[in-house]
Amino acid sequence: MGQIKVTKAPIDGLYIIEPAVHGDSRGYFMETYNKRDMEEAGLNLNFVQDNQSMSTKGVLRGLHYQINYPQGKLVRVIKGKVFDVAVDLREGSKTYGKWFGVELSEENKKQFYISEGFAHGFLVLSDFAEFCYKVTDFYHPNDEGGLAWNDPSIGIDWPELNGKYNGTASSEGYSLADGTPLNLSEKDQKWKTL
User: Fold this and answer.
1) In a 3-state reduction of DSSP, which class is residue 99?
2) What is the spatial distance between Cα 144 and Cα 155, in angstroms, rounded to a whole number?
3) In 9-143, at which residue ranges do the beta strands (DSSP E only) sit?
4) Is 96 a catalytic residue?
5) Candidate list 65, 113, 133, 174, residue with the active-site label
6) Residues 64, 65, 113, 174: which is the catalytic one?
7) What are phi and psi of 37, to 5 degrees?
8) pTM score, two decimals?
9) How far apart are CA 36 and CA 85, in angstroms?
10) Fewer CB within 10 A of the end CB, N or C, for the chain?
């Protein structure tokens, strides 16, 4: 292995990637992707598109997946902090419906690789967060599916989030520990449970 450490998460198909950060009084340098290191870890990936988004505190995006054109995603945060989650939707998987989450931040510089067949989402814990990700397939309009972010059968333990499930994916009644209201898109409040 070279400049990137790849660790398997407890659910097969999920990986935490930690780059070697070289810093001094002037700043730092790191490789955010190294094809050789990924292949040595058993990840033979072909990324076709890079995406970036910015979200404010309390925004929850997800849980999203692609129906006919599944994407593998290599995600990271370049500013701020999020709690990033993947839910196994692979039919026949022994961990179907199980979730795994990891904090991604500009400080820890961790990345999260989510293989095809997972739903994905994240909650912004800082004042704002800039989120970058590489994907293994192009965006296809009208190919997005989703799950309720608060599905009790999945039971994601979102950090700093207070509120009680009311039978829907609505953000009503939910807030972060500091009182910031949970902020979801209209679409994300309509997804159904698993």
Assistant:
1) strand
2) 22
3) 14-19, 21-24, 27-30, 49-56, 60-66, 73-79, 81-88, 99-105, 111-114, 118-124, 128-135
4) no
5) 133
6) 64
7) -60, -40
8) 0.95
9) 26
10) N
